[in-house]
Amino acid sequence: MGRAPKKSVRQKFPHPVLDLTNIFVTLGVTNIFVAQPAKDAMPRNPSSQPNDVELAILRVIWNKKACTVRDVHEALQPQRKTGYTSTLKMMQVMVEKGLLKRDDSERPQLYRPAIPEEQTQKKIVRDVVQKVFGGSARKLVMQAVQSQKISREELAEIRQMLDSLEKDKP
Which residue ranges in the chain fall short of pLDDT 50? Predict the structure, then answer.
């Protein structure tokens, strides 16, 4: 048994010039098209809130008070498989954003949080209350209590906090 004879280009493409032109145009458009920002578009401002990666780095540094890039990189390795230089670059960006302070007087350089953990948490919660819950702390608390399994100890602590807040109100 022999092979089936090959079809000529004309048999495959009854209108070869038209078909090839269509292919060329399609490929040309795909390859040429580049999305350009509008001339009057404003550059996006960096977020005042730390992103997920920045929060992970901050947690490490908040726990240790001061860290080298190597300390942070090794602490993050179980969760994030990134290279040392990625961690370094991220921490350099965080210094520029005002999230970290770098001590250049020592080698290796030490990084410290620029803002205390509680202050960062309060700012994030304030923003979430405004953006997600329309300014209603009650809605935030209700969602937090309903969406999480709360231990008796945590519930007692929440009650105690609410009681003390109630006593402080005139």
Answer: 9, 16, 18-34
